[in-house]
From TrEMBL:
This is Acyl-CoA dehydrogenase family protein. Residues 126-220 form the Acyl-CoA oxidase/dehydrogenase middle domain. Belongs to the acyl-CoA dehydrogenase family. It comes from the Bacteria. Keywords: FAD, Flavoprotein, Oxidoreductase. InterPro entries: Acyl-CoA_Oxase/DH_mid-dom, Acyl-CoA_Oxase/DH_mid-dom_sf, AcylCo_DH-like_C, AcylCo_DH/oxidase_C, AcylCoA_DH/ox_N, AcylCoA_DH/ox_N_sf, AcylCoA_DH/oxidase_NM_dom_sf, Mycobact_Acyl-CoA_DH. The keyword Oxidoreductase applies. It comes from Streptomyces tremellae. Its cofactor is FAD. The lineage of its organism: Bacteria, Bacillati, Actinomycetota, Actinomycetes, Kitasatosporales. Gene3D superfamilies: Acyl-CoA dehydrogenase/oxidase, N-terminal domain (1.10.540.10), Butyryl-CoA Dehydrogenase, subunit A, domain 2 (2.40.110.10), Butyryl-CoA Dehydrogenase, subunit A, domain 3 (1.20.140.10). PANTHER family: ACYL-COA DEHYDROGENASE, ACYL-COA DEHYDROGENASE FADE34. Residues 233-376 form the Acyl-CoA dehydrogenase/oxidase C-terminal domain.
Length: 388
């Protein structure tokens, strides 16, 4: 399988490289990363700078702040962000996950009001699905919303946890129970809740990786009727669509690629000669990375063509995250304590941070066992249909 990269994407790559290397981008990147506690800093000024240059949502229609480019422009953008050291998480959640869902399933009014602001970096979003007792089993959410007694909207009550970027997000996409429904999959509604609404509290939780988790409490939080995303009670089908957008593996593949490049540089640094087994490991991981890119591109292409497939996406996310984790751990085994040293020419210990980030990669955005369950279920269904 081969994905054609149009000439327009090559031109976009050059434009992005020039923008990421410009002095203002580098200044804003340094400022965003310079927190004394080494946790993730506030990247919103940097995103606004990039958003003003119009590069953040290349694959969206231009009427919503995009460039009408195909999905390969998104792949190139993420590859370049990571290799220029631009933190990508808040961007990825805001534009590529929440924004993609709005693009697919939002009303025309939501698309016109939210997408251009996401694309310009003026609006950021996080996802509040997981609760203290429910992660993979999302149909069990207990955070509730009941209609406000004055008919003005809804009152939300409950708790969400282990989410990233809530400290820097303006709005949260929340899965909330609005009705007990006939089955666990009914009665769930998605809300877009502004995080500065009275009654919302955001508390950081420590994490092994550089990015903090958060614990969010909703205490009698009043939101308007327009906070509902999609129809009331129709949240489950939207969550499934969002998973198809989230689980394309791109965010994992780009980090894996960068980590393997950095590890390869270290293996030959200062005239060092890699051993045969080191070279074999490098080749093995490169092959897995090539497969990751193909699976990611296939899932993104389907999404771009409006034919998203949750099993195809789950396979991509599973493969990319397992590959990334394998590369981070192989780098540690191969380089040993040298991994703790900052990258030559920078003060950035990329591979050490990767080692701490790796365990969460096969849990976030769908744990590996759950993704394999979805892939196997879809395969069995196909075999039943074809009589295999
Ligand atoms: C880095 C990171 C970032 C995250 N960011 C967010 C975020 O932004 N927003 C958010 O809402 N959440 C976020 N999460 C939470 C994440 O979505 C959940 O941790 C994940 O869904 C797993 O849920 P859980 O922790 O409750 O584990 P559980 O669901 O209890 O799973 C525990 C173990 O059981 C296995 N398991 C569960 N169900 C099955 C099954 N049916 N079959 C086989 N095995 C199963 C799992 O694979 C896992 O190994 C993040 C997590 C991490 C690590």
């Amino acid at each position: 399988m081969h994905f054609e990269v149009p000439e327009s994407t090559a031109a976009f790559e050059q434009e992005v490289d020039a923008l990421f290397a410009d002095p203002e981008t580098r200044r804003l990147r340094r400022t965003a990363r310079s927190r004394a506690d080494h946790m993730d800093g506030d990247v919103r000024d940097l995103y606004r700078h990039l958003g003003r240059a119009g590069v953040l949502a290349p694959s969206w229609p231009s009427r919503y702040g995009g460039r009408d480019a195909d999905f390969t422009a998104t792949v190139v953008l993420l590859e370049r962000m990571v290799s220029h050291g631009i933190p990508q998480s808040l961007y990825y959640i805001s534009v590529q996950i929440v924004g993609s869902l709005i693009l697919q399933a939002g009303t025309e009014e939501q698309k016109r009001s939210l997408l251009p602001r996401l694309a310009s970096g003026d609006l950021t979003a996080c996802i509040l699905f997981t609760e203290p007792e429910h992660g993979s089993d999302l149909a069990s959410v207990t955070t509730r919303a009941i209609p406000a007694s004055d008919g003005s909207g809804w009152v939300v009550e409950g708790r969400k946890t282990y989410n990233l970027k809530s400290a820097y997000a303006d709005v949260a996409l929340c899965a909330v129970r609005t009705d007990s429904g006939n089955s666990r999959y009914e009665g769930i509604t998605l809300f877009l809740v502004p995080l500065d609404t009275p009654g919302v509290s955001v508390r950081p939780l420590p994490s092994l990786a550089d990015e903090q988790f958060h614990d969010i409490r909703f205490s009698q939080v009043r939101v308007g009727k327009d906070a509902v995303f999609g129809a009331v009670g129709a949240g489950w089908s939207l969550i499934t669509r969002m998973f198809a957008a989230e689980r394309n593996g791109l965010d994992y593949y780009v980090r894996a690629r960068y980590w393997l490049e950095r590890a390869a540089d270290r293996l030959v640094a200062d005239g060092r000669r890699p051993t045969g087994s080191e070279l074999a490991g490098l080749a093995r991981h490169q092959a897995r990375l090539d497969a990751s890119r193909l699976l990611t591109c296939r899932a993104l292409q389907s999404l771009h063509e409006g034919e998203s497939d949750i099993a195809q996406a789950s396979l991509a996310k599973w493969h990319c995250s397992e590959t990334a984790q394998g590369i981070a751990w192989w780098a540690f085994e191969t380089l040993g304590p040298e991994l703790l040293e900052p990258e030559p020419g920078t003060d950035d210990p990329v591979l050490e941070a990767a080692y701490r980030e790796a365990p969460g990669m096969t849990i976030s955005g769908g744990a590996s066992e759950v993704l394999l369950d979805i892939v196997a279920g879809a395969r069995l269904l196909d075999d039943t249909r074809t009589g295999g």
